[in-house]
Amino acid sequence: MDTTTQIIISGLTLGAMYAISTVSLSLIWGALNVLNMAQGALLTLGGYAAYTASAALGLNAPLAILLTVAAGGLFGVAMYALVVRHMLDREGFEVNVIIATIGIGMVLEAGLQKLYGAYPIRQPLTVEGGFFLGNVYVPYNSVIIVLTSAALMLVLAAVLARTRMGRAIRAISQNRDAARLMGVPVELVYAQVFALAGGLSAASGIMLSTITTLAPTMGYDPMLKAFIICVVAGLGNVMGALYAAFLLGLFESTVQFALGVRFAFISMLVLVIAVLIWRPYGLFGRTRVTKL
Amino acid sequence: MSATRRNVLAGLVLLAIAIALPFVLPGRYLIGQLTLFFIWATVVTQWNLVFGVAGIFSLAQMAIFAFGGYATAMVGLYGGWNLWLALPVGALAAVVFSLVVGLACLRLKGPYVALLTLAIAQGMYLLIITDTACFSMEGVTCRNFTGGTRGLAKYGDFGFREWLGYKYMAFGDYYLALGVLVLATAFSMFLMFGPIGAAFQALRDSPEYATARGVSRFKFQMLVFASSAFFTGLAGGVFAGYYKVMGANTLYLSPLLFLLAMMVVGGLGRTWGPLVGAAALMLADEGLKDFPEYRFMGIGAALVLFVMLWPRGIVGAAEAIGAQLQKRRSELGGTSTRQH
Amino acid sequence: MTAPLLQLRDVEAGYGGQRVLRGISFDVPAGQVVTLIGPNGHGKTTLLRCVSGLVRLGAGEILFADEPISGARAHRIVEKGVVHIPQGDLLFTDMSVYDNLMMGAYPKAAYAAAPQRLAEVFSLLPRLQERRSQIVASLSGGERRMLAIGRGLMANGKLLLIDEPSLGLAPLVIDQIYEVIGNLKRHGMAILLVEENASRIIGIADHVHLLDDGKIVWNGTPAEMEENEDILTTYLGG
Prior knowledge:
Chain A is mainly alpha-helical and 292 residues long. In chain A, 74% of the residues lie in helices and 3% in strands. Chain C has 238 residues and is α/β, with parallel strands linked by helices.
């Protein structure tokens, strides 16, 4: 019983963290067919920005988080405006833009390492303490992560479902030409998507850094996991990504418990390959998503 | 002169220079760097086949390389084989590994392939560095099967020291790496200008027609993926024998991206792209030797700049300039027909 | 007398070096239905895409309400009141009927007036109200066409560009669609209509242009078209 509780709590925490990251990847892929390989570096940026805002600038937590999200959003927009925009509609876009985002990620990561050094730093926004649920210790930090992530996802779902911007993002993902005919300024919406994804990633990066520590390469592993979750869900499917994130979070914590941490990543990988053999477009994917 | 003959001639001239170089170069350091250059260039020529010619967006290249290296080292270490015999075994092991990866990934489309192959490389890396189980005892210390974080060592070498003496032992590794590069380049040219190149050209130009004529993309992709894994694995084995230590650092992201940058900077899918790109990146790396913190940043910036501004790489840009000059010359001179 | 709502002056356009339109000029006056007919693959759709800003002009000029719109971005042209209802509907298939209609009202001015427009569209196309929260993928072909038209109306435009509204529909459904278009005309909407099926436009068009091989080879009223044996036999099979 306690074991189950433990697995569920750690699975939910992982899932909550992955969910935001995964949804950011999915938003960008859905709208622009861009696989954002700079995601890992964006997570790292979020962690360090929050560190600077709270430790160096001495801001209180909400303000530091707000600033961090803004920094992530800004970086997202810059990525779009300086690089991605100039590559749209060019020959070999899908592959070239992946290479470009890999490059952006490298530059950002190296820049952060230059600024903060390679040694791990503790995230000052980490919340100490916890409580007992039966015999299982539940850290407040995990509770906060799950609640924040749930709140963010609810807000995002509402934005996508009900607002003018959200509808336009969905419309572009489904049919870019038709969206243009409706009067949607496609490039502006692309920039909005990058801003949204950048801000969400930064938030996800803060959460991540409260569980691990701040280090220049901290985003890489979670990025790969987020990608795996995206693939399981079907690239570009935002709601599917959300479900898959929690499913795989639980899966990972179960494997960690049953087989050890060592096999967590590799069993996720085996799972995703199995899913793809069974359903080549992901659990919630549509064929449209992978057309090339 | 036909394009093929021109390429062969250019290759022979470069080869002659490469053979003569160790005798005129001052010092061991440059020979060592050139040996490394040959190894990386071999891997990039094969990646270029996979990526630029067959259109498989695989990021498993260094995983295949490492697999070949590890297999060579393990056959030497656990089998007690001479490394020369272990080398082809390691290369074949890399082929088998690539077949497994290919079956799992190649039916999928572009971005999915990139993600899965990258994840496979990372999975392999994590399995190695978290390996703490004792496989055998070495005196009082316990050795892991994969070498864990310390890597594998003491699996022997190519014996150049005994053959050539201390003074010339570096020549042995140099010529071995050069030989593998020559074979790999010849193989990749054979594929590019032969029927396989034609098949992929057809698949690119009119997929429906090619498929209707029985050209199966998957089959050809598997063929290229597996056969290029042979030379990639061979390069891995040479690397293991040259360094005498095989570690998981070959699976770090930075060497993979370093090689990706070589391919992109040289020119994706171009015949001489891998060599030009490898040379350019090695030179740039040499220049940044005293500023290691900018190395990673430089590679990243090069990737971004090249895909944005010169997506066909240095070779592609040079070709375009050449064509421009040719056009201008023929416009001006009218009858100038000089060929290179 | 005021100038016509839409004016095309020597419009040329093409894709990748191949010219599809070569010197097209005609007008669409306010409140009138002007029709383009002619064989498939001869530039009718390209012409509409030029007007709505999806295809760049090679030469010539397009004026809307006396302002040049050629060269403007597609979303600016929609904001001015030119609404393109594309061939094959191009609906957002994973979204609900309601969301599709709201996408039609994307321009700021239209978005502000959306509730009122929605009521008007629902009264004109009551089927859409019944299907309001259904996903587009579950609609019939006729319902989709109605939705495409309804979505176009949501933009509160002054000129509708309608591309092949009868394409792929059963005759009975085509009648319903043309009834709707007739209604729009009675409300004073200017329409540039592309139609393969010339017999459909006779009761509704004010003027007909025959487009062949990128040029307008004939124009006149529907009545004149019916009297012209050459046109009927060469182009309309009949």
